[in-house]
Description:
Elements: E1 2-12, E2 15-24, E3 27-33, E4 38-43, E5 46-51, E6 57-59, E7 66-68, E8 72-78, E9 83-91, E10 101-109, E11 112-120, E12 126-134, E13 136-137, E14 140-145, E15 150-156, E16 160-166, E17 173-179, E18 185-193, E19 200-210
Antiparallel strand pairs: 1-2, 2-3, 3-8, 4-5, 5-19, 6-7, 8-18, 9-15, 9-19, 10-11, 10-18, 11-12, 12-13, 12-14, 15-16, 16-17
Amino acid sequence: MVLVSCGNKAQTVNFVADDCDITLGNVNFTKAINLDKAELTASQDSLRMTAQPGTDYFRSPSDGSVIATSPIIFTEVDNTKPFTFTAKVQPDYTPEGTYSAGTIYAYVDETFWQKFAYEQDEAGRHRAVTVRTMETSDDNNHQALDSKAIYLRFSSDTKAFGCYYSEDGKTWNMVKLYKNNYPAKLHLGIGTQSPSKDSHSCLFSEVDLQPVAVNNFREGAL
């Protein structure tokens, strides 16, 4: 683990972020947003990210309201080439932590992105949740799970974009598949959120980026 700095502001098209240098697995995260709302703790090849209360990333489909305060770190990829991005997320859920989550992101700018979360719902269940945003966000609750940690995965062959989760890192489940309409320059990231009154901590490990797509977009395995 290397954590050097998070400071100088940089802008690429509509993507505005701070410079960072955080390495997890084989991935070097070089940009970050909202790290002033997070505490980072590095340990060997894992990163614990704790988000402050009231943090979320969502653009309401009903009234257009925006909250964009979740801490996220990013790595840039060439979206004209295949890739598969995977991270193990282990959120520290609390009974009052509704919508708290550990997340991965595919991110163009603040109006165009995809979030994939292991999130706590209103009933206290833990679910795979996808949020795809183009000006406004959709919100899709998927399977309720009992696992303490799960693996989240994005994969693209440049034409299709798939979202998958796994409880053991071997058997994968597809939750969303759509046309890859992202531009050539795309940022992939990990982050946490805590819309409730308490902070939320998530441990990220086994972070991996491969220059290939999954073997079968219905199955999600490399």
